[in-house]
Amino acid sequence: MFTLRSAEDALTIRRWVQQSDSRRAIVLGGGVLGVEAAEALLQVGMKVTIVHNAEFLMNRQLDMHAAVILKTFLGNKGIRVVTGTGIETITESGEMKQVLLEDGRVLVTDIVLLCIGVRANVDLARSAGLKVNRGVVVDRQMRSSDPDIFCVGDAAELPGAMGGLWSVGSEQGKIAAAAILDSDRSYQTQALPPVQLKVSGIDLKSFGKLDDDDASESYTEGDVTKHTWKHLRVDHGKPVGGVFVNSPLAAAAAINASKKPDVTLSAQEIQDILHKDS
Questions:
Q1: Residue 87 lies in a domain
Q2: Count: domains in the chain
Q3: pLDDT tens figures, 76-114
């Protein structure tokens, strides 16, 4: 069983695969890292299965249409995708591992690669009597339930804030320092940075948020059967999120527009973006 956090981890996994003559791999987690790791294992000759507990792959970055294209693409490359379930238990069976899924299916593998993101160690905070959910609950000045204790980064739980990103932790640290010095600055939720999937044969980019809300509207174009999809989310003319599959020009135009602070796209400009690559 392996985790993948560094280049050294990747080299360790490759050495193990070569020395043990491993042939089958299960990647637990179908986020960006999990999908990229699965393709890397495929490249070294392994039969790969991705197990993802959400309804579809890369559910933080994609919508259902884009995820269908990605799943089909991976399947055509030889990567099996199992969604909507997780791993219940892993047991040894000779040289193999038997993996029991939560839905009752049993898979056999040589190695298991865990790509399940970050989870805060909150034991110290809990023992100190702080309010804890998945992480340490904080306000927008990064104060915990004890006003004399601050928490920033992956351990901090603040609605809308993203974990696992250095830029988020760094900015939260500045806000906490300012609060300690009696500043009234507060943390402003940052948009998800643009993501480009590093898998050969598919151009997939996303940015921002795709969640439905009362303020923003969705504009879409594409054909899943032709492996193209464009989904742009706009809030009063400002692009706030999007996902683009095999549409690099539209993706670039949308991402560039989203970075301009005062941009307000007209209906025609939105359509012009979506019609790129067509």
A1: yes
A2: 3
A3: 999 999 999 999 999 987 778 899 999 999 999 999 999
